[in-house]
Amino acid sequence: MREITGRQAVNEALREEMERDENVFLIGEDIGIYGGAFGVTNGLLDKFGEKRVRDTPISEAGIAGAAVGASLMGMRPVAEMMFMDFITIASDQIINQGAKIHYMFGGQMNAPFVLRMPAGAAAAGAQHTQSLEALLYHIPGLKVVMPSTPYDLKGLLKTSIRDDNPVMFIEHKKGYGEKGEVPEEEYTIPFGQADIKREGEDLTIIATSHMVFKALKAAEELAKQGIDAEVLDPRTLVPLDMESIVKSVSKTGRAVVVHEAHRRGGIGGDIVARIVDSEAFYYLETPIKRITGPNTPVPFSPVLESEFIPSEEKIIKGVLDILD
Amino acid sequence: MREITGRQAVNEALREEMERDENVFLIGEDIGIYGGAFGVTNGLLDKFGEKRVRDTPISEAGIAGAAVGASLMGMRPVAEMMFMDFITIASDQIINQGAKIHYMFGGQMNAPFVLRMPAGAAAAGAQHTQSLEALLYHIPGLKVVMPSTPYDLKGLLKTSIRDDNPVMFIEHKKGYGEKGEVPEEEYTIPFGQADIKREGEDLTIIATSHMVFKALKAAEELAKQGIDAEVLDPRTLVPLDMESIVKSVSKTGRAVVVHEAHRRGGIGGDIVARIVDSEAFYYLETPIKRITGPNTPVPFSPVLESEFIPSEEKIIKGVLDILD
Amino acid sequence: MELSEEKLLKMYQDMIEIREFERKVDYFISHGDITGTTHLYIGEEAIAVGAINAAEEKDYISSTHRGHGHSIAKGVNIKEMMAELFGKTTGSCKGKGGSLHIVDSDTNNLGANGIVGGGIPIAVGAALAAKMQENGEVILCFFSDGAMNQGAFHEAVNMASVWDLPVVFICENNQYGMSTSVEKAFNIQDLSARAKAYNIPGVKIDGNKIMEVYEVVQEAVERARQDGGPSLIVAETYRWKGHSKSDAKVYRTKEEEKAWKERDPIAQFEEELKAQGILDEQKIEDIREEIDEKVEAAVKFAQESPFPDKEDIYDDVYVDGEVEL
Amino acid sequence: MELSEEKLLKMYQDMIEIREFERKVDYFISHGDITGTTHLYIGEEAIAVGAINAAEEKDYISSTHRGHGHSIAKGVNIKEMMAELFGKTTGSCKGKGGSLHIVDSDTNNLGANGIVGGGIPIAVGAALAAKMQENGEVILCFFSDGAMNQGAFHEAVNMASVWDLPVVFICENNQYGMSTSVEKAFNIQDLSARAKAYNIPGVKIDGNKIMEVYEVVQEAVERARQDGGPSLIVAETYRWKGHSKSDAKVYRTKEEEKAWKERDPIAQFEEELKAQGILDEQKIEDIREEIDEKVEAAVKFAQESPFPDKEDIYDDVYVDGEVEL
Ligand SMILES: Cc1ncc(C[n+]2csc(CCOP(=O)(O)OP(=O)(O)O)c2C)c(N)n1
Ligand SMILES: Cc1ncc(C[n+]2csc(CCOP(=O)(O)OP(=O)(O)O)c2C)c(N)n1
Ligand SMILES: [Mg+2]
Ligand SMILES: [Mg+2]
Questions:
Q1: C91 — contact with chain A (CB < 8 Å)?
Q2: Enzyme class, one word (chains C, D) (predicted)?
Q3: How far is the CA of C236 from the centre of ligand 3 (A)?
Q4: 3-state secondary structure of D149
Q5: Cα–Cα dist C24/B116, whole Å
Q6: Is the dihedral of CA B233, B235, B238, B241 positive or negative?
Q7: Who's near C6: CB < 8 A, 6+ residues apart?
Q8: Structural domain boundaries of chain C?
Q9: Where are any strands of DSSP class E within chain D?
Q10: Is B82 in the pocket of ligand 1 (CB under 6 A)?
Q11: Where does A3-181 sit in CATH, by number?
Q12: Strand ranges, E, within chain B
């Protein structure tokens, strides 16, 4: 099958959905002639014109609000935050408006918009590198999607655009360059279905976003040492496929959770708690470890940043720790 | 000892700290002649004047930014968000600026401000009732304080104002009316020290903020059934006194975590994960349960709102569940 | 401005209905039947009624925490709105929203908002949709003075201006945001001067004169409909009641209140209509009676309606699918 | 405006130093020695240097993502700044910040900011402190056109105006926010018109003429110092380079770039100083040589400095106390 990058996968999903449904449009900063800060929307302005690929002033609250408002009127906006860190500026529109409209209005209205945003450390300092999915994960009414591979990016973005709820679509900057197989044919991926990226018997590595690639590499290393790790990618955080997680952990009896976000209050804790509160608790042979970014802002210096990001080595070490 | 309300406790702490240090000042919406939406700053304008009790336009980002900026210049601002829900508007200043300044500036500057904010459900609908501590708990650089009793409110607010870091001070609307013993004499409470509000042997109830009162009542009920619950109030979430938690859970072998915030991504999951990753794991006799607000926005109708808030009955039921 | 007698009477009735509805709410709030708090529109009726009647039915509104008046003027079923305030399952939001979140999609009402200024970007988004859909719809975006100091106001109005969106920004300048006077929160006297920052038409009007509101809004709506872009209208008015339930109003004087009450928008309109021979005492009495009955019926409906079931808490979080427990 | 020869020469030198520093950065960014991206100040030198020299040393600045120029004009140690860009432990922020977070408390520099507009409320907070402390300090708050459409700008400028705070808002209008032109992002041509929304003095100036910048800023600073409140100065300029490392500049024309380069702020100032007999070719050569050496020394320092230790990641999260692991 052909291989494309994460960047191309997102671009294709946007293009195809815009072709399919004329109500789909893009809104964000420098997504037009510039093609987006990461080149993700390249070529879409030429194809769809300024009306449907709308460059905005630098007004994140305004962008998110425009997405909410337009979605109430039957449009299908796909808004971009240039960096996920900027949801802090838009968070009233996300958390107090978009997420709650359907509920607090008793079901009278719904807000089917998508907010796309690149997360993750990539040499840009504390304000351009965060993985803030935990903030969105906590808010009822939002769906939260955090794919890893090009295949998942494309299939899940298409599903996100067709979903009738606000969907937070979290990309990883380093995922834009990753290559993977993506069929030419149309496909979508349902929400709430974790993907076992590698089957294994000895323990379950639950990894999100770009950490999936690291977990897979770690698993290969571990295999050489005779340890057979299963790598589970939840793909969507809300809804979360606990069934698959519980099944896997019940099978292996051991788990580590890997994410790039800070440990404290990261989604890893919640996943651990949900495992502990499930039937898998009774199969647990060891504590569940979290391998995550530390509880520090993301530092700039390459030396420090690479210490921040959970590495293959740290994953391996975490696994060996619980296997002792 | 004299008894005062939570509201008075906060008011006294502010008053005493303003008397002690002329750099301490208050800034927020309607905190002056109005005395704050919940009457917490009553009388302070009269005593300290408009300069130190500064009413603002309705500009939460501006308020938080003013607190950050003034704190860099040697002042000790205590800013108020009228409702915790409004941190969404101020969150860039909180998350990207205040929290990170010390770190990303390599220690060159620090931002010693306090942000006070009432949280919790109290008949005001989805945008005025949230307990969003999980959003702050996740952000390195912030300290997060969430007291329950008047005694803790007063002692911890004084410590917060004297702390050299940004401190998020979360009050509970229903805590304003709760009465409790508070000495006349000056005292402060150190961060990172949980308080065992009730000693017990059979299980540990870890409860935050207004849930502490409910947990204590539940414990009394349980005592009648011969179940001896320990009630542990972390008081500060960052830093969190894991030592006391681990000690208590290791002793009792069972734990429930109670908070009003939504379950998914709430701090409860993180606490569970930290217990599971501690030596207490080996003493655990049952899964750890979370008794929390559901994963829904906070509804308005009194019937629904009281279903939202974890009740004494639900705590008792949760405890009985794990004791089976 | 030639308006039919029928329309003028409807506008008059709407104003009375708002005032009487709010009086009832005030009563039930202070008696605890309605829980929480609420923000009453009494004294500002000319703005909602004048503005909404100047637009067409197909046009949309976005409203505020002080939103009962907008909803009534736009045609909400007051039975459902009252039931909502009582937290009943028959309410506009099935009891989930309360006063801060009244909405009515049947009448193109995009809803109240508990966040000061929070509805402004949403209104602009709706206007963007209207422009893209080329359906000639206009959005009336209501807010009060306090909201003009929110960043959201600034970002949204700029976007509306840059893109020439069909939205009319209507500031109900009732002189205060809670206890904070316009003098304290602004360094400008005429808030419509803010329009210059975005190069859109800005005008200050007497918000207690319904026909002035009507005329100015109609012009702005028509301009917007013809792709002429947004405008800012600042209508001067006053809220007679405290900000919300617990307000002791220590920040303003009785004299000030009195002066504004003498400029009662309803009394003024009544005088006009009387002078035009459209109203007389008998007619006024009939109208008041009719409205009293209507409001009483709403109260009765609200009182007799059942509360939601506890389990309803889990509905409507998502359009489809379940809430994770 | 009578300035000493010494001061004029210092200003000229600062401009050259900024440009040469940035050229080096450009080189090392494109060669990968500096990781990530950076935003160069080339072409805008007259603003930072003119404005900061118009204020006193005790005054403060707050800067932006395009902040090297402000820091140099304010007197940062360029060795430390260069080391910071290289991610070294000897850097201004011990390598933790990078280009977006250069800070220098020694020279009253409140720091750069990665969030467009994010520094504006902080500058206003600092000005509030200065006012409360009655120390006569003024804050120069730098930002570019793009930041003026952030809600934070609006909220903060309004607060500064309402409270008469000693802050001077300096917009470096370099015609673009990334690829988005001022024409696309604003519906006003003269951005200083925004000042009217807050009733503060607003003026548009030629940002490539350093003496114009100097004079206008000095007046604003003195007004602020005398408790006369804030001002907004919009200095027209142009960034010669792309927005950041990866910018292909497809959104603007070569002609436009050329026209602006012909209005080089350094060349213009050089001509003036030559005309005044303060500079001649020899002196220019001497200055350039001296600065080359200084910048080379900074590069050498940066290159030879060690990277931080991995464990340093845990320092400086809190002033006191430990990071929880
Ligand atoms: C963002 C935000 N800040 C503060 C509040 C609390 N609050 C509710 S209404 C109000 C005053 C609003 O003033 P204004 O916008 O003038 O509206 P008015 O009440 O006068 O109609 C305040 C401060 C809020 N709901 N939202
Ligand atoms: C709030 C925010 N939005 C978007 C960005 C991404 N970004 C960085 S610089 C920039 C352009 C800024 O334009 P302007 O304010 O005019 O500054 P200039 O680059 O022209 O100096 C953008 C969009 C950001 N850093 N912060
Ligand atoms: Mg008002
Ligand atoms: Mg610019």
A1: yes
A2: oxidoreductase
A3: 10
A4: helix
A5: 35
A6: negative
A7: none
A8: 5-314
A9: 60-62, 139-144, 167-173, 176-177, 180-181, 202-206, 231-236
A10: yes
A11: 3.40.50.970
A12: 3-5, 24-28, 53-55, 76-80, 114-119, 143-145, 167-172, 179-181, 195-198, 203-207, 229-233, 236-238, 255-262, 289-293
Q: Which of A19, A80, A25, A89 is nearest to A61 (CA)?
A: A89
- Reply yes or no on whether B128 is catalytic: yes
Q: CB distance B106–D93 less than 8 Å?
A: yes
Name the average pLDDT for chain D.
Answer: 97
DSSP H/E element including B15: helix B6-20
Above 90 in pLDDT, residue C117?
Answer: yes
Cβ of D75 less than 6 Å from ligand 2: no
- Phi first, then psi, for residue D40 (nearest 5°) are -90, 150
Q: What interface predicted TM-score (ipTM) does this complex get? A: 0.98
Predicted confidence (pLDDT) per residue in C51-74, tens digit: 999 999 999 999 999 999 999 999
Closest CA to D139 of D55, D227, D228: D55
CB B300 to CB C146 under 8 A?
A: no
The model's pLDDT over A18-70, given as tens digits with 9 standing for 90+, comes to: 999 999 999 999 999 999 999 999 999 999 999 999 999 999 999 999 999 99
CA distance C147 to C118: 8
Could you tell me if A51 and C132 are in contact, meaning their C-beta atoms sit under 8 angstroms apart? yes
Q: Confirm whether pTM is higher than 0.90.
A: yes
Which residues of B are less than 8 Å from C174 in CB distance? none
Please list the residues that pair with C180 across neighbouring strands.
Answer: C177
Pocket test for ligand 2, best of D38, D41, D64, D65 (most atoms within 8 A of CB): D65
Taking the C-alpha atoms of residue D321 and residue C70, their distance in angstroms, rounded to an integer, is: 53
Residue span(s) of chain B under CATH 3.40.50.970 come to 3-181
Which of B266, B270, B276 has the CB atom closest to A276's CB atom? B276
Query: Quick check: C114 and B55 CB within 8 A?
Result: no
What is the tens place of the pLDDT at every residue in B1-31? 999 999 999 999 999 999 999 999 999 999 9
DSSP A202-264: SEEEEE-TTHHHHHHHHHHHHHHTT--EEEEE--EEES--HHHHHHHHHHHS-EEEEEEEEST
Please give the backbone phi and psi of residue A254, each rounded to the nearest 5 degrees, phi first: -145, 145
CB pairs below 8 Å between A and B: how many? Answer: 150
Pick the CATH number of B195-323 from 3.40.50.2300, 3.40.50.920, 3.30.2140.20, 3.90.1150.10: 3.40.50.920
Check if C308 has its Cβ closer than 6 Å to any atom of ligand 1: no
Residue carrying structure tokens 């200055």 = D287
* Size of the B and D interface in Cβ pairs below 8 Å: 148
First and final CA of chain C: distance in angstroms?
58
C-alpha A306/C-alpha B103 separation (Å) is: 17
Q: If one looks up domain D5-314 in CATH, what number appears? A: 3.40.50.970
Reported as a pLDDT band with limits 50, 70 and 90, residue D1 is low
- Rounded to a whole number, what is the distance in Å from the CA of C300 to chain A's nearest CA? 21
Q: Quick one: average pLDDT of B179-197? A: 98
Q: Taking all residues of chain A, what is their mean pLDDT, rounded to a whole number? A: 98
- pLDDT class for B324, splitting at 50, 70, 90? confident
Annotated catalytic sites of A, by residue? Answer: 128
Selected residues 29-48 of chain A with any CB under 8 Å from a CB in chain B? none
Q: Tell which phi-psi region holds residue D171, choosing left (phi > 0), alpha (psi between -120 and 50) or beta.
A: beta
> Please, what sign has the CA dihedral across residues B175, B181, B187, B192?
negative
Both structure tokens of D132: 């409360």
B touches which chains (3+ CB pairs under 8 A)?
Answer: A, C, D
User: What is the position in ligand 1's atom list of the atom closest to the CA of C64?
Assistant: 21
Q: How far is CA D20 from the centre of its chain?
A: 15
Dist CA A112 CA A122 (whole Å):
30
Residues 54-113 of B with CB under 8 A from D: 56-57, 59-62, 64-75, 77, 92-93, 96-97, 101-110, 112
